[in-house]
Each structure stands twice: as C-alpha cells, then as structure tokens.
User: Fold this.
Amino acid sequence: MLRLSTIALLTVSAVPAVAETVSRVEYGPRPYYLIDRMADGALKDKLQSCAGQEASQSMFSIGHRGAPMQFPEHTAESNIAAARMGAGILECDVTFTEDLELVCRHAQNDLHTTTNILATPLADTCVQPFSAADGDTNAAAECRTSEITLEEYRTLTPKMDAANGAATSVDEYLDGTAGWRTDLYSVEPTTIMTHAESIELFRSLGAAFTPELKSPSVEMPFNGFTQEDYAQKLVDEYKAAGVPASDVWLQSFNLEDVLYWIEAEPEFGAQAVYLMDEYDIEGYSPMDASTWPNSMAELKEMGVNYIAPPTWMLVTLDGEEIVPSTLALEAKEAGLEIITWTIERSGPLVNGGGWYYQSIGDITDNDGVMYEYIDALAQDVGVAGIFSDWPATVTYYANCMGLE
Assistant:
C-alpha cells in the first residue's frame, strides 16, 4: 500500500496551471474544531493526544471527487487540496463525451449544476434548456457531456455543484451553493480534467486511483459504444499510462460492470468495488437480509472482493452506542472488504446530519459526533477506507490511530 509523508507534484503538461510542489501534508483547523465539540471520553482524549503529530498521507483517507466541500469537484485544484490533506486515494467519476472521450464528472447529465454551460453558447446543446421557476414549479435544466465533444468540454468552467431551484434567470440558477460550502475558490477558473489527465495528476501527487464508471444517461450502445466498451476503455487508460492494477480500485453501482472486470480484466477486477445502492429498493433494510437482492456470501461467490455501501447502511444504534449493522457483520463474515461514503457531505450535524446519518440520527446533534461515527466505522465495522469531501478529517483520525 502507498504511504508517503512527502508528496511531489511534478509538472503536468495536461494541467499546466497547477505545476508546483506540495512539500507536506497539513490538517488545517477542521479536525481540531470537530474534536473540541466531542463529548468527553477516551476517544476525545486519544484524538487530542495526537494534536502535535506530523501529518502524513494515508490510504484510509479517500478524496471524494477531490475536496468538494470547498473546491469545485473533479478539478485539478480540488484534488491537489485533497492530496495536501493526506488523501492517499483520489477519485475521478468517469463519463464520456459525444466523441467517446472519458472525462471526470459525477454524472453524464450534471453540466448544468457543475459548470457554467448554461451561460455559454453550449447551452444550445442541453437536452433540457433552462426554464425559470414559476409558482410551485422549480427552475430546471439538463446538460450532458454526451451532447458535446471533448474540445467543447474543455471550454467549460467548473463551479461548485449546486443550483437554485427558485431562480428566474440563468445567473440566479448557477448561484445556488449551500451556505456551509463556499464559492471562494470558484471565483477564478479552475482546471477541468479528462480521465487520462486525472491519472497523470494523481500519480504525480503520489496517490492511488479509484475511478467510478458512471451510469450513462443515454441509451447504450451510443454511437456504437457498448457498456462493455465503456468499462474496458476505463481499464485501458490505466494500462496505457503504465499504472499497475494493484494501485487501482475500479468502482461501479452496476454489478454487471464489476462482474465484467472480474471476468475480462481479472487483475483489475480483483480490486473492483461494488457500490451499493440497494437502499433504492422498496422495503430494503441493511438490518434484514431477507430484503437484499444478493447476500454478502453470494457477492463473494461471484468474485466480488470489495463493497462500498453508504455510511448509514453499515451501522445502527444500540441505545446510544453506534454498532455494526447486519449488513456490516455479514459482509465481514463473507470475507468482503468494505469501503464507505461519504464523510463531510452533510453540513453541520446539529440537526441530525440528514441522509448520511439516518441510522444514527437520534444521537447526531453536534459536529463532534463525526469522529464517533468514523471511529465506529473504522474499529467496529472494520472499513478499509472512508471517502470524504474534506479529507483532512479522515486523515487526522487515520494518522492518530495508526491506520495506513
């Protein structure tokens, strides 16, 4: 496993605006702010005791689209920020353009919320043009990477992922960033990336790779491009860059993609991650195995070695104690490795934390609970890594607890 205390950022021709040197990992004030708000006890004492330690990169800390709590996601700047905070693995969510080039976007149809496309001539390519809010109807738009070429994609300016549903103009629609995030680092243009450019950048940062193959918004095959072609092209770009399979954790919510990699590219397939969204199934419960489409043992028998459920699916409450869910217990019994998502994506926790904290909402009433959550996921569930929108939070915990 990679573990570097010094990260050298080399000159990257594809992203010339970020050629510099990152000399060391730094936490900044965020972890200490959270620790200060924890209830007194052994965990708080342990975390406070690590306040003077030297920060270092950790594979347990995974940058979720970089560091998008404050930087536009999937930009070079967002990922450099994540590396500076010690993320040992970085993510490029992968989709494709009209000319079948792979690019880093969270969804094929998110350009209207993650870029300035609606304020450019490329707004004419959007499958749903901007429509203003009207009475009880929210403002809306839909713009896809599959409607533009790579050359056109490169002209877009990334922004924080947000939209103002009450907007009556494009400018208002693009100005919807949540109050607990910031547009401070979106004032000047940031660096949009292809998947191949992300490989070059992440390698120069000393980080490993966890690309996610995003579900297409278009019907496949698209321009002759099949789903299998898409899954294979993702692997081929790592091969072309000379990246060993051991440094790559491919991801997909589509189990068929994972099974394709296991069969067609067994070296890469051995670390392919099945992202679990079974929560969308009516009646599903991580506490009731009879509601699951596949048991954990069945996934293991298929050749799956890694699963990645959201944080709340892995824990429940026993009184006021956070304990592993049935899903977590059965996954470990089946020999599955677990990665989870996402810390620092909920804003202040004073009101329960929302979706990512739903299984422990009854005890989530302040930001200090975040480290109790991380500790339960690490020590009781035994996850191998945690995605975070602000990796310093997870890096601090990993360094303090000696997790590589």
